[in-house]
Specification:
Layout (H helix, E strand, L loop, with lengths): L9 H24 L2 E2 L1 H25 L2 H4 L2 H34 L7 H10 L4 H9 L2 H27 L3 H22 L7 H5 L4 H5 L2 H8 L4 E2 L13 H12 L4 H22 L3 H24 L15
Parallel strand pairs: 1-2
Helix pairs in contact: 1-4, 2-4, 4-7, 4-8, 7-8, 7-12, 7-13, 8-12, 8-14, 12-13, 12-14
């Protein structure tokens, strides 16, 4: 079995360790604050993780059988197991971090919307005028909306495609980028919260305002029960959509065609972030910085793990 097709690695143990740590913090904070997660959404999430983890373990065991291990069928089983394992990890991680993001909003430090709007002016960006122009051009507005909502589809499809086509190192790099960037995101956003441009400028539609309605409810204490199936992205600074767009592009560089398509789609997603996500332009700039910081930290970590012996390559991902 080659390194690129291993189902479970030491890096996976670290990633699951992060999930368990955040889960423990979530549980302690929820208990201390009297808040909770709906049992239906919690059980649904746990079931999804358990089913995918069981599939991964079963396929991994089958692939390791001496009569199957060295065959093409064994390779296919390992790839399917890797995809299932990655799906379980993504579901678990996004849910525990979603709860943590909500809990951090309840700390309710002073909002920084005024400072972010002022920085936009320094950059020469007029958010109200840009928003009005995009909405006045339905074709452009439609394309930007599709690009913005493509983030969720890419979050699902890129790991599946990358894993099934045998790009295990890129998949693990993707997971490491995603997890570290999300942790850094919350560390940055917690002390500098913003309601966002939709709320700040008062120009958004009722549907747009509804996408960030939980923010005020968490800050004033009226939202006490969280539904994992209805979680909203409440971080304004940095823009996580921007960071994700760059992570998606990075994850597809193993394929020339896929890389070009990812550049086009995610370039549009970054352009859509101010008007379709209610972000200030400075949020987008900070999102680029978040991606650069994440990639730099992972590269530095990989460099420290590089074997000193001549002729051994540095690991390309947190594995």
């Amino acid at each position: 079995m080659t390194t690129g097709t291993r189902v479970f690695t030491r890096g996976d143990a670290l990633r699951w360790g992060v999930v368990l740590l955040v889960l423990a913090l979530d549980g302690a904070w929820l208990a201390a604050s009297g808040r909770s997660v709906t049992s239906a959404s919690l059980s649904g999430s746990c079931l999804g993780v358990a089913v995918l983890a069981a599939i991964a373990m079963t396929l991994g065991l089958i692939a390791s059988h001496p009569r199957i291990d060295a065959t093409l069928r064994g390779l296919h089983y390992r790839r399917l197991a890797l995809v299932a394992h990655s799906g379980a990890l993504l579901i678990a991680f996004t849910n525990v971090m979603g709860v943590m993001s909500y809990l951090l909003v309840t700390l309710a430090p002073p909002l920084v919307d005024g400072r972010l709007a002022a920085l936009d002016q320094v950059l020469g960006f007029d958010w109200p005028r840009t928003y009005a122009w995009v909405r006045a051009h339905p074709g452009i507005d439609y394309v930007l909306k599709l690009a913005y909502i493509s983030g969720l589809a890419q979050l699902v499809l890129i790991p599946i495609l990358t894993g099934l086509l045998g790009q295990a190192s890129y998949l693990r790099e993707f997971l490491a980028n995603l997890m570290l960037s999300c942790v850094l995101l919350l560390l940055i956003a917690a002390p500098w919260p913003a309601a966002g441009a939709y709320v700040s400028y008062g120009m958004a539609s009722a549907d747009e305002l509804a996408t960030v309605a939980h923010f005020a409810q968490l800050r004033d204490g009226t939202l006490q029960v969280f539904d994992l199936g209805q979680m909203q992205g409440l971080v304004s600074l940095p823009s996580y959509h921007t960071a994700l767009a760059l992570i998606f592009i990075q994850a597809m560089r193993w394929s020339k065609i896929g890389f070009v398509l990812a550049c086009v789609l995610n370039g549009l997603m970054i352009l859509s972030t101010p008007t379709e996500g209610g972000h200030y332009l400075v949020d987008v700039v900070a999102g680029v910085g978040l991606w650069a910081l994440t990639a730099g930290m992972l590269h530095a970590f990989a460099g420290r793990r590089t074997p000193a012996r001549l002729g051994q390559a540095a690991p390309a991902q947190l594995a």
